[in-house]
Amino acid sequence: MSRLRRFVRSSARNPNAIAYAVMLLLAISYPAMVQFATGGNGDYLVGLAADGGVYMLMAIGLNVVVGFAGLLDLGYAAFFAIGSYTYAIVASNHLGVTPLGHSLHIPFWIALFIGMFVAAGAGVLLGAPTLRLRGDYLAIVTLGFGEIVPIVFRNGGQWTGGVPGISALDVPTLPGWFQGPWIGQDFAWVPDFRFTSANLTAYYVLMMGLIVGSVFIVHNLYNSRLGRAWMAVREDETAAAASGVNTVTIKLLAFSIGAATSGFAGAFYGAKLSYVSSENFGFDVSVTVLAMVVLGGMGNIPGAMIGAAVLYFILFWLLPNAPTQVSSLATSIGLDALNKSTPNGWPGIAEEVARSKYLIFGAILVGIMLLRPQGLLPSQIRKQELKHTADTVLVSD
Amino acid sequence: MTDHILRVSGLTKRFGGLVAVDNVSFEVAPGEVFALIGPNGAGKTTLFNCITGMYKPTLGRVDFLGRDLTGSPPHRTAKAGIARTFQNIRLFEYMSALDNVRLGHHCRMHSKLWDSLFKTPFERREEEATIEHSMELLELVGLANQAESYARNLAYGQQRRLEIARALATDPKLLLLDEPAAGFTPQEKVELMDLVQVILKRGTTVFLIEHDMRVVMQASQRIVVLDHGEKIAEGSPAEVRRNQRVIEAYLGKSA
After folding, report:
1. For a tag site, which of A266, B3, B19, B58 has the least CB within 10 Å?
2. Looking at the 3D structure of chain A, how many domains does it have?
3. Which domain holds residue A210?
């Protein structure tokens, strides 16, 4: 008991421990909360959170590359695409329509890891020749890779399904599952459970499991000799090499671990959507994930997770719903006139808000960065670095 | 066993038209303090960079413990047993003093990726042993009470000593110190000389570049003098002090 108390007391001053605890509590209570708040119609919101989990996984992975090792990767969505397509190819009827003529149906739990390893392999292939480059050059090469991969999938003909992509992917299965009042049914044990869009809570729980597992592993890495070596390479590559760190392998490792996480997320994404298309893996995905990491706090795992949650919420719930919300707000405070379009070009407030969606998004991003330049939950090291830079700027003024 | 730990033979490094190190040869014996001196721009640090693999020599050979290390990358020379410090201190500024030294153990640790991913008992034991050994090294250089400070918040002299501790963490057979006494007070220089003796007793040969003649003459058994990239003298401190070419290089030729 005293041990527990000591643990709680030592964690009470550690912002990361608090963040983990709060996120875990929120994650557990989220499905019940939204069902309660929406009167039982919250399935859509639970599914949205499961999709958001995909971005959170990617942010955790990109944080290893950008935050820990300091390698700017602008083509991160490529590995996401590779994970998704790998899952699509090994877990659907698709290979049956290719010249191979024989489809593969590898179970989800194995295919998930196949997607992960194929993405990690792609990370090594891309990283090996390019990680000798420093800084901006690496960013440009990864940018190119991120553009090329979706194009390759789009033009892969029958192997990748071309423009329409691959559909009817296998859904995850489990030997059994609990159902209960949280999805409006009685307590029961469901044997041979199949994940479907009728039970989004199951996807949500699965996603949370994957995230907890990934955080556990990435956290271990951060506190190991590898995490230290990444930090050292980021701070001073020459000194790290002189101290016995093989800088090329250590950067390659960061790169492929980031790619693996992204591929893992991609495989889940493919399974949940039951469909992959090259349209879903553009540059905007890479940039969004990068923004999540930077905004949340580079180099800090819970920071990147919070960044992912906040940005996902803004992008996929707040902004799509903003027009209707604003228009009903206008009605309720007696400014109904704003809702009517006028001949002089005013399209009505809902339409106006919908049109300026990205303006609002940009303003929110700039606002957050102005208020918290180190990110929502910065790592202690980054905090010091930025503080130091700010000091020097003040002095040199 | 050979009677030398490091042998540099015919080492030349050219940068375009500039010959920074020109056909230099010498041997360092195990257990001695070997010094490299010379006026500014003589090519001393370039020579260090060639030995540790920061630069690839244009010509020549570097043998260490009977192994050819010519042109090996820095992490491999470190693993082979050559550690170094830098003329303008290069610490990991935003890592704690302890973590700086822990990082130095990197190439001697045996945890595999698997161990790091799942924090196996083996990894945990190795990390504990590393922390313990790092604390011993910090103790050795007199920084045990600063273990948790960021490297950049340490005083100048402390940073120099922390760099030595990080280098010692790679468990070197040969320690290259690039101007370790630069900017030191006389008191700090005395302490540094004591530290060098302790390092020797631990079985590490010391090879240093130094400008302070008193330090060099007191501490080292043998000296090589470079001028414009060429070796102009080699011998005991007394011999070097009397050497006409050395006097000319430092003071200029009398008309």
Report:
1. B3
2. 1
3. 2-396
With a cut of 70, which residues of chain A have pLDDT below it?
1, 12, 181-184, 381-397
Average pLDDT, chain A: 86
pLDDT at A396: 44
> Rounded to whole angstroms, how far apart are CA atoms B96 and B90?
14
Tokens of B223: 């000296």
Minimal CA separation from B251 to chain A, in Å: 35
The token pair that represents B36 in the structure block:
């490299």
- pLDDT at position A182, please? 62
Does the ipTM surpass 0.90?
yes
- A235: which chain B residues are within 8 Å (Cβ-Cβ)? 92-95
User: Cβ contacts (< 8 Å) between A228 and chain B: which residues?
Assistant: 95, 99, 102-103, 106
All domains of chain B, ordered by start, with CATH? 6-81+172-251 (3.40.50.300), 92-155 (no CATH)
Confidence band, pLDDT 50/70/90 cuts, at residue B85: very high
Amino acid at A31: P
pLDDT, greater one: B2 or A229: A229
CB B47 within 8 A of CB B62: no
Beta-carbon separation of B103 and A229 below 8 A: yes
The residue count for chain B = 255
